[in-house]
């Protein structure tokens, strides 16, 4: 795939020069699949419960001749140049490393990480490739703990039950992950939004009571909180995201919501509820109008909006710091929540 991506970048450059040097020279536009919500669709599996977001064949363009896309046009070319250099050198870089490099050489076009992330997805949409095939990988920020044995080539076996409350760091290098040998007797994988909740469960060694693996990305996706933003994160993990464009389907999986639900609120002291902010209400409105959100999730949102309050899973500490493990053990036997 790397060789194909290099060839696609070369073809894009040659086509640009061909139009520029033709008898009627012009600056060619860059057509790419539109990553806006209006161009998204949901694919539902026929024989499984899996669903994921995909983008239809509606295109948008980046052009040097239109004022509102001039900088975006230049960013795409600069990003392709940088990625081509990375691929030729057979290197891998994180998005953060790429930002600092571009900040030094093109500060007017890449003043923040936002421009880098968006432009990478523009290039993905233009070249019809994955981010990883461009030589770009995510930063290592995830962690895993629990009933899992890992072994990298020519390395010692890592027992993730002995990694403490911080867990074992998950690499952002997909090539390295593919080379891992993994063994487990776990029946469940708990994906946890908050690192603090991950640490609590790992410290309590919840995997001794429940045959499970704990995973956190320190922000994505959500298991722990019951608020509109948390539910939006869960949907990103469950269905993929529009922002990830053509890569959305690669990361979607049939995850279940084990976090706080409306039936759990009676166990939470009134003092622990937090008033909804305007941003919370905005997210709730967007989710409610989305075709991807299943009806029982919409009912949960409706109860939250009507009450004007939200609750976070830390409120369960009212019953003791070890209560969270008991809560999860009870949840996984409730079929309606699975």
UniProtKB/TrEMBL annotation:
Sections of the chain in a coiled coil: none
Cited PROSITE patterns: TOPO_IIB
Catalytic activity: ATP-dependent breakage, passage and rejoining of double-stranded DNA
UniProt-recorded Gene Ontology molecular function terms: ATP binding; DNA binding; DNA topoisomerase type II (double strand cut, ATP-hydrolyzing) activity; metal ion binding
Gene expressing this chain: SPO11-2
Topoisomerase 6 subunit A/Spo11 TOPRIM domain: residues covered: 227-332
Location of the active site: 100 (o-(5'-phospho-dna)-tyrosine intermediate)
Uppermost EC category: isomerase
GO cellular component, one term: nuclear chromosome
Cofactor(s) needed for function: Mg(2+)
The family this protein is said to belong to: Belongs to the TOP6A family.
EC number: 5.6.2.2
Protein name: DNA topoisomerase (ATP-hydrolyzing)
Keywords on record: DNA-binding, Isomerase, Magnesium, Metal-binding, Topoisomerase
Any single GO BP term: meiotic DNA double-strand break processing
Domain of life: Eukaryota
InterPro entries found in the cross-reference section: Spo11/TopoVI_A (IPR002815), Spo11/TopoVI_A_N (IPR013049), Spo11/TopoVI_A_sf (IPR036078), TOPRIM_Topo6A/Spo11 (IPR034136), WH-like_DNA-bd_sf (IPR036388)
Record-annotated Spo11/DNA topoisomerase VI subunit A N-terminal domain positions: 71-136
């Amino acid at each position: 795939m790397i060789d194909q991506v290099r060839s696609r970048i070369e073809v894009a450059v040659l086509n640009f020069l061909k139009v520029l040097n033709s008898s009627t020279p012009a600056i060619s536009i860059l057509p790419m699949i539109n990553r806006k919500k209006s161009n998204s669709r949901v694919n539902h599996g026929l024989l499984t419960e899996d669903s994921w977001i995909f983008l239809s064949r509606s295109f948008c363009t980046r052009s040097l001749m239109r004022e509102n896309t001039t900088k975006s046009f230049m960013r795409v070319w600069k990003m392709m140049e940088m990625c081509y250099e990375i691929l030729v050198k057979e290197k891998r870089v994180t998005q953060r490393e790429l930002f600092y490099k571009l900040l030094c050489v093109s500060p007017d076009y890449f003043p923040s990480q936002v421009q880098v992330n968006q432009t990478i997805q523009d290039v993905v949409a233009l070249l019809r490739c994955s981010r990883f095939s461009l030589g770009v990988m995510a930063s290592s920020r995830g962690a895993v703990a629990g009933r899992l044995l890992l072994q990298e080539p020519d390395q010692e076996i890592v027992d993730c039950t002995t990694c403490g409350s911080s867990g074992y760091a998950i690499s952002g290098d997909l090539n390295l992950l593919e080379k891992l040998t993994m063994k487990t007797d776990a029946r469940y994988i708990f994906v946890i939004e908050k690192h603090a909740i991950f640490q609590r469960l790992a410290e309590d060694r919840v995997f001794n009571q429940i045959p499970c693996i704990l995973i956190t990305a320190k922000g994505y996706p959500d298991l722990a909180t019951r608020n509109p933003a948390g539910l939006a994160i869960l949907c990103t993990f469950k269905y993929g995201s529009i922002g990830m464009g053509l890569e959305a389907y690669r990361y979607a999986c049939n995850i279940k919501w084990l976090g706080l639900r409306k039936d759990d609120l009676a166990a939470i002291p009134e003092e622990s509820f937090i008033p909804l902010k305007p941003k919370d209400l905005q997210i709730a409105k967007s989710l409610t109008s989305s075709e991807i959100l299943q009806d029982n999730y919409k009912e949960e949102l409706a109860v939250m909006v009507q009450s004007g309050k939200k609750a976070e899973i830390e409120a369960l500490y009212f019953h003791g710091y070890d209560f969270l493990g008991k809560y999860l053990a009870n949840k996984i036997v409730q079929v309606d929540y699975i």
